[in-house]
């Protein structure tokens, strides 16, 4: 369905109430709101456009295996990098820190977990990881201050199948993932490094949530999930009562939102998406990427779906959800990274801060004064060709944009 702007002088151009086709299981209608360009000029004396002060190139080799994990609370960058040892058949991965001016690594510790399944907490204090053992997949919580490990759970291969990787809530309290029942027939496990197992004929998908404060995990069966494809991610809200779930089929991706109700988890809202990017704004609102590059904001309180931005390739919210970084491609196939301030249903003070790199990941620093970017340098093929596509010319281009 095309959404067209009709009255440019109005603060809200169009409000359409749509009855979702095939609604069931408590899914309700929604209101789509498109703010006008005039709304973007809301006065805010406490903010100003983003201005780039310095670009720091990180001394990281061009390899598939090394990975940036994000920001430490102090403002340093943490990553997991290969440390070859001639006495070992396999290279060990070490946790290392890059501090300003981001020129030299400081080795912190080894990590006893599979390097492809590590997630740094938003506050930069813990790492959640998966360790494959003979008893199953052990889910670990590792403290970066003292290296202490906590076993959150063990996924036994003949009982449950781990469907997703581990995902932190924005306040670093909850770690969530999805599991399902298994059978004796052999099939490929969705998570890298997982033992091959079979899925039951009528599997029950369950959401597991580990509370780092209570130090316990709770499991909730999912109810009302209409899209029964492959679930790929689940993210808890900061209050631990709601979650967003990404479901992928062969041709479509959808975002589902639901709430914990007693001992189970009930889906309340579903929408087709253009990717797996989604984020909570607060316990009642979340944003996600639409099929045509829109960034949608959904508010469960009034069932309103607002369009924040259009023609977006990727985005990342700051930890306090006050700012947004996003990428767009212009008519000349140039990809640019923008930064702006979130206010209501608008993005204010949008400024281009970098060009020529397609960001695979972006991380805001704890104080919102820097943006860590890892992406791929691209160039455009000849515009005389039919349907020219950008071409990748290098693997990783990690750098930090420091704002004034």
TrEMBL record:
Record-linked InterPro entries: WD40/YVTN_repeat-like_dom_sf
SUPFAM superfamilies documented for this protein: DPP6 N-terminal domain-like
Protein name, per record: Uncharacterized protein
Organism: Paenibacillus lautus (Bacillus lautus)
Organism lineage string: Bacteria, Bacillati, Bacillota, Bacilli, Bacillales
